[in-house]
């Protein structure tokens, strides 16, 4: 059974920084894309950043220049360094990963971690 577990959310003032981490565990054969999504109250879940297995990142326009995504393939982890945080970054952040097991390949999601940015 595959699990994604996030950590690192919390409360921070505008202009501050947070680092989110996500670890995948279980019977994993390989991991393709890993990413972070967020969902603010009353809004749809949106892509924040994603990174391929060879380290190629992409970012939402709203976070370019402020957030950095990275991954450690040996540890099956993905991180999101968030700098210059704004109140509009407040949301529940979800990790996801396209994981291949012996049985199949599918998307997995973490349980979410709350990020709150105060003004």
Order of helices and strands: EEEEEEEEEEE
Report the uncertain regions: none
Largest sheet: 7 strands, mixed
DSSP summary: helix tally: 0
Indicate the radius of gyration in whole angstroms: 14 Å
Query: Strand tally, please?
Result: 11
Question: Which percent range describes the beta-strand content?
Answer: over 45%
C-alpha termini separation = 41 Å
Secondary-structure class: mainly beta
What would the average pLDDT be, to the nearest integer?
97
The backbone outline, from C-alpha atoms, is elongated
Residues in helices, as a percent range: under 10%
List keywords for this structure.
four-stranded antiparallel sheet; 11 strands; 119 residues; seven-stranded mixed sheet
Detailed description of the structure:
There is one protein chain. The radius of gyration is 14 Å and the shape is elongated. Strand 7 and strand 8 form a beta hairpin. By secondary structure, the chain is mostly beta strands. 0% of the residues lie in helices and 58% in strands. Strands 2, 4, 5, 6, 9, 10 and 11 form a seven-stranded mixed sheet that branches. It has a four-stranded antiparallel sheet with strand order 1-3-8-7, with no helix packed on it. It has no helices and eleven strands. The protein has strands spanning 3-7, 10-13, 18-25, 30-39, 46-51, 57-59, 67-72, 77-82, 91-100, 105-109, 113-118. The N and C termini lie far apart (41 Å). The model has no long low-confidence stretch (mean pLDDT 97).
């Amino acid at each position: 059974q595959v699990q994604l577990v996030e950590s690192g959310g919390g409360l921070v003032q505008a202009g501050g920084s947070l680092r989110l981490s996500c670890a995948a565990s279980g019977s994993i054969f390989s991991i393709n894309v890993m990413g972070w999504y967020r969902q603010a109250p009353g809004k749809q879940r949106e892509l924040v950043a994603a990174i391929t297995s060879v380290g190629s990142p992409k970012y939402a326009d709203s976070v370019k220049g402020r957030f950095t995504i990275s991954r450690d393939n040996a540890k099956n982890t993905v991180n999101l360094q968030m700098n210059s945080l704004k109140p509009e970054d407040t949301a529940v952040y979800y990790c996801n990963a396209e994981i291949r097991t012996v049985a199949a390949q599918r998307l997995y999601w973490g349980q979410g971690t709350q990020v709150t940015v105060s003004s």
